[in-house]
Every structure is written in structure tokens, then in C-alpha cells.
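Blinded run. Sample ID left blank on purpose so nobody reads anything into the name before looking at the predicted structure. Input follows.
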Amino acid sequence: MKGSRRKPYRVRITTDYTIDGEGRARQIQRTLGTYATYQEAVDALAAYNRNPVALDAEITFAEVFRQYIEKAARKLAPKTVKAYRAAYGDLAPLHDRPFRKLRRADLQRVIDDSGLGFAMLQTVLAVLRNMYKYALKTDLTDADYSKNVDIAQYRPTKEEQKSARKIHKSLTEDELSVLWANSADPFVREVLMLCYSGLRIAEYLALTPEDINTDARIIAIDAAKTPSGTRRVPIAQKTAAMWEKLRDERKTPDTRTADSRYKEFADRLSVKMAELGLPDHLPHDTRYTCATLMHRAKVDLLTRKRILGHAVTDITEGVYTDTADAELLAAIDSI
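Blinded prediction complete.
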């Protein structure tokens, strides 16, 4: 295989033949595996030729996913490929298991133990079903054990959906004072950074070191749900050192799914509020807090919208200049 790879030698085997539009026979191949040396590849092919069934039985879940996603990535949108890779991470207990030996109960157990929300489980199940579809076509399994995996039990009821729609509320000045008094705590610092930036929790969790410019005190949000969400967010002087620490910490990528990271953050927030003797809050309350603080500091509406990523309909300006950055910094430093 091209490029610098840890295992540059690939072995492919022919599983079937098809006839093309010109009446010529074409091989249908699948990857048997990748290997660090040429001799390992030769030995693997020889072993397969001696006993194809025995070797197929040892191909792991991880290898089947690698083969599937390598082929599927040519047709799927990049965002879908990224989502599938993330969902694959939630199937970690299966990675080293021989694929052919897995049964429905094994798949269901991982689903039940994942603790994921219904939306993320839908993606996980899509990965399983696509993998089994691929495995059936390439003779890596004799049955589709994913088709009876059940996630319907995790669909929120109407009552649960209704109760989940809590009214967001800002942190009070007294509550913020308690957080500042405990800012030596790493998680409390994260909460304060959110309160004084107005970032959406999903934006915060997705930040990379390249997005955080501590010298200019600017955070670049390039991937957003709406055009107005793509923006430059100022870093308050009082939280600048916290953002510098976060930038260094984010140099190690977090491979967990967005859903699982959000769930962990929300859970930790509830626990930390209770530890500090404060009322319970949702992650999005930090964004409300920033909006409230700017309103109290008499930051003008246009600047508030720019910082929070709300739609701006009264101007045609689409690019923020250095002067605009200075205005944003002055605004966030006033709260």
C-alpha cells in the first residue's frame, strides 16, 4: 500500500466473480488483512489457502469494520464517515472479538451497557447493520445478528421528552462567586470559561488547540449549525489563563463520541453543583449566563449577537475585522 504505514502489506482474496457490461469476468475481492512485513503477508495467504474457514473465523470485529469503512468511505459523506467511526468507538468491547463468533446477545449487551442516548444508539445500530451487510456479501458471517438488536426501549417517552425540556436559567452572581472561589478545581474552570464566553456546549467540546488563540484572545468557531454560528469568540481577560491550559490539554484528541462527552459533562456539572451546595444547572445555562452578564453590562445588542452566534439581520457585514475583534474583547472584558 502507498504511503508510510505501520502495516504496508495487504493480502486480498477472491470471493466471487461477476460479469461486466462487456461480458468479461471480473474478480470480487476482499481484504484478508494487513501486515508489517512481506513475509507475514505471504504466510497469512498460505494459511488461508490451507484452511480458509478456520482463518475467517478469527477475523476480528475491528478488522471487519476497517474493511467496511475503507470501502464505504468512497461513497459516504465525510460527516457520516466521522459519525460512524465515533459510533465504532462505542462498540469497544467487541473490537477484539472474532466476528464470526458474535451473536445477537453480544451486540445487545454492548448496546445495553453503553449508557448512550437514543439518537446516538441509532448511529451505533446503523454501523452494526452496515457491517453485517458487508460481512454477508464477503462471506465473513452466515447470518445477520444485528437485525434483531433492540434500541426501541431507549426511545424517550412523551412524558420524558416533556420533562427534559427544562427552562434554562442563568447562574446568579452569588453562584458565580462560589465558582470563582473554587476555580482551582479543573472542572469549575471549564464552567467559568463557558459562562464568560457564551459558547454552545457542543462547540466547546469540539474545540481543537488550533481553534484557541490565546495571544489574540480569540476562539475561532468554524463548524457551526448556521452561518451566524461561524464566528470569532473573544476570551475574557479573567479566563485567559484557563483557556491556555485547555489549549494544551486538547493536544491529546478525545476519541469519544459527542453524545457521550456531552452526557459526561452534564453529569459532572450536576455533581459539582451539588458538591458546592449550588442549585442544579444544565450545560446550556452557562450560555444563558453569558448573555445575562452582557445585558447587565450594557453590551449593545449587535455585539451580543456576534459573540453568541445569533443571526444578525440588520447588517450586511459578514467578516469581522481586527477592529471588530477589539470591540468584542472590550465587551467580554466588561462582564
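Unblinding after everyone has recorded impressions. The longest helix spans residues 118-137.
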